[in-house]
């Protein structure tokens, strides 16, 4: 086997995704966060979501991956039934900023989710300059952070660490 | 065969491609505005290459969110494709007037699991060719239940065959050779492409194309395309058909030389295996939706490469390859499930006899997994319940990590960006031609 690229079985049981039970340890003692990863309503891309699921799990969080093309209503239903510690919106199809603006409006209008941390990242516009063009608007609209594709995961990791530290307080 | 050549000359996508005499090249192209879309089609037609045109539909129309498409147009938000349904048949006819014709057929590419509105709109606009499929436009692309997608696609075949006017030949291309773009072993891609082509034929479509997306190993890819053709000859008699290669759909090299080398490999794959059509990518693909000029440059580069590539020698028996054995085993198992292919596909996915690795759709069993073996080929680390035990020895691999996934996803891009494969056989670097913005 080559050193590069030998993915094995994606760790996954046969239960519907998203039905992972909470553990016995209260999240405050471990800093473990319940994270929902979701694509936007019009974005069919999957690899970004699988990657984020693996990454967030390795960082010690519980992840529910809603998959691609998630209608706003489904995300809201899911997250109000069990409010997560963080919602991660990922999009690479060029509609991310536009979909993301609509979505964060709906999230912030939902009482249970008014204060839930929500971040968005990926390739957010059609012109390859998503962060510069859209970052301020997305933050003004209610996202706690915007991670453009070009930034890498360090900033995202920093954001997670801060959130976990706050959860431990 | 009489039935497969009927009416092909003037208005047949399949007939045009098969009569072209050289590799037909096609962009992936879609813009919000009819004026820009028209400029794109004009430029595609005028390119120094044998081309067909593309209307790639935007993502809102694809998922049936027509209000969002309307709002985007009203607010001047740039869409990632042409909103065919929202612009409507009249405006689309005007946009196509004088560019669409027997020498320049245009295909609608969309990605919808509920494409009835799109198919109706394209026939009303005077078009007759599109692509997709009940599995390939459902499983990787969202949450529509597979059962609904099968019903939708059966109805869409009827809309297409009923709606296309006299003298034109409805054409459907299966997207089955592309599931998730990368890391799917070719046997499953070939099987799905064939099964969808047979589904279209069962629902009255007499002209189809079968797709295969370039993966990571040129020899394995060539085996796959030859297997696809051999299986099509066996299983689609009397149906007009050709093979379309998609240039690599996975993570694209970020360097122009890397993207160029990958594109040239796709051209060579198509020419050497006798595939009739190629979906082209551009050097801008890794960063943004390409401009018209970038598309034209890519089309012309591909045509030039194709013209100086020798067709492959008559292949060894295509039925001797591992890819053929896998595809054949999967297809036979599905066909044994009953005469109605839609029902058979549903049963096959329910039982996990067809199981797309890494696909998150609730109707996919998700017990299969793939890896890149020591020869740089795609292989199975788990076959789940797929009836492949007699032709494949799965090799369990370590649990997947985010780093491992990234490495696998970037396998091709990383090698090409490093320049390993960016030198022509002569040792000279490939010339880089950048499309002006």
Automatic annotation (TrEMBL), chain A:
Which intervals hold domain B12-binding? 32-169
* Location of region: Disordered: 1-30
The positions making up the signal sequence are: none
Q: Which GO terms describe its molecular function?
A: cobalamin binding; metal ion binding
Bias regions of kind Basic and acidic residues — which residues?
A: 11-30
What protein am I looking at? Glutamate mutase S-chain
Automatic annotation (TrEMBL), chain B:
Q: What is its EC number?
A: 5.4.99.1
Q: What class of enzyme is it?
A: isomerase
Matching InterPro entries? Cbl-dep_enz_cat, Glu_mut_E
Q: Does the keyword Isomerase apply?
A: yes
Keywords attached to this Swiss-Prot or TrEMBL record, sorted alphabetically, are: Cobalamin, Cobalt, Isomerase
> Which BP terms from GO are recorded?
anaerobic L-glutamate catabolic process
One molecular function GO term is: cobalamin binding
Report TM segments: none
Q: Does the keyword Hydrolase apply?
A: no
Identify this protein by name.
Methylaspartate mutase, E subunit
Species name for this entry? Streptomyces formicae
């Amino acid at each position: 086997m080559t050193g590069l690229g030998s993915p094995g079985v994606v760790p996954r049981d046969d239960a519907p995704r998203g039905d992972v039970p909470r553990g016995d340890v209260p999240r405050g003692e471990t800093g473990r966060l319940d994270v929902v990863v979701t694509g936007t309503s019009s974005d069919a891309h999957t690899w970004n979501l699988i990657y984020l699921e693996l990454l967030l799990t390795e960082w010690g969080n519980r992840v529910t991956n809603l998959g691609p093309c998630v209608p706003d209503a489904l995300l809201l239903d899911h997250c109000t039934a069990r409010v997560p510690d963080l919602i991660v919106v990922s999009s690479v199809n060029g509609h991310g900023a536009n979909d993301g603006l609509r979505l964060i409006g709906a999230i912030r209008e939902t009482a249970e989710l008014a204060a839930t941390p929500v971040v968005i990242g990926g390739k957010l516009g059609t012109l390859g300059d998503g962060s510069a063009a859209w970052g301020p608007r997305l933050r003004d609209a209610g996202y706690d952070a915007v991670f453009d594709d070009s930034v890498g995961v360090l900033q995202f990791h920093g954001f997670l660490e801060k959130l976990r530290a706050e959860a431990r307080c | 065969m009489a039935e497969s050549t009927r009416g092909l000359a003037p208005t047949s996508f399949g007939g045009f491609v098969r009569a072209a005499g050289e590799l037909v090249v096609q962009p992936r192209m879609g813009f919000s505005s009819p004026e820009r879309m028209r400029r794109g089609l004009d430029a595609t037609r005028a390119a120094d290459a044998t081309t067909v045109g593309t209307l790639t539909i935007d993502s809102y129309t694809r998922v049936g969110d027509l209000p969002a498409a309307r709002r985007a147009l009203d607010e001047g938000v740039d869409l990632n494709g042409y909103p065919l349904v929202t612009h409507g048949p009249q405006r689309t006819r005007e946009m196509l007037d004088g560019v669409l014709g027997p020498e320049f057929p245009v295909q609608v590419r969309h990605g919808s699991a509920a494409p009835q509105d799109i198919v109706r709109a394209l026939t009303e606009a005077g078009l007759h060719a599109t692509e997709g499929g009940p599995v390939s436009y459902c499983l990787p692309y969202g949450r529509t239940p597979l059962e609904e997608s099968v019903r939708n696609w059966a109805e869409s075949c009827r809309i297409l065959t009923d709606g296309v006017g006299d003298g034109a030949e409805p054409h459907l291309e299966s997207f089955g050779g592309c599931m998730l773009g990368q890391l799917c072993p070719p046997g499953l891609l070939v099987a799905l492409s064939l099964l969808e082509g047979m589904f279209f034929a069962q629902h009255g479509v007499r002209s189809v194309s079968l797709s295969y997306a370039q993966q990571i190993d040129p020899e394995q890819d060539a085996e796959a395309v030859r297997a696809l053709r051999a299986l099509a000859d066996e299983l689609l008699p009397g149906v007009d058909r050709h093979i379309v290669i998609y240039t690599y759909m996975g993570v694209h090299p970020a360097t122009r030389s890397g993207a160029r080398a990958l594109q040239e490999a796709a051209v060579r794959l198509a020419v050497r295996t006798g595939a009739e059509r190629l979906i082209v990518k551009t050097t801008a693909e890794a960063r943004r939706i390409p401009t018209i000029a970038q598309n034209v440059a890519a089309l012309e580069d591909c045509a030039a490469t194709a013209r100086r590539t020798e067709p492959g020698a008559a292949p060894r028996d295509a039925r001797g390859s591992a890819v053929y054995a896998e595809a054949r085993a999967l297809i036979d198992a599905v066909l044994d499930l009953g005469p109605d292919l839609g029902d058979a596909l549903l049963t096959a996915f329910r039982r996990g006899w067809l199981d797309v690795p890494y696909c998150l759709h609730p109707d996919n069993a998700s017990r299969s997994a793939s890896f890149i073996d020591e020869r740089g080929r795609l292989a199975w680390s788990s076959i789940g319940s797929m009836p492949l035990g007699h032709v494949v020895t799965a090799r369990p691999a370590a649990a997947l990590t985010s780093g491992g996934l990234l490495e696998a996803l970037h396998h091709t891009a990383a090698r090409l960006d490093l320049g390993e494969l960016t030198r022509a056989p002569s040792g000279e670097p490939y010339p880089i031609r950048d499309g002006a913005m």
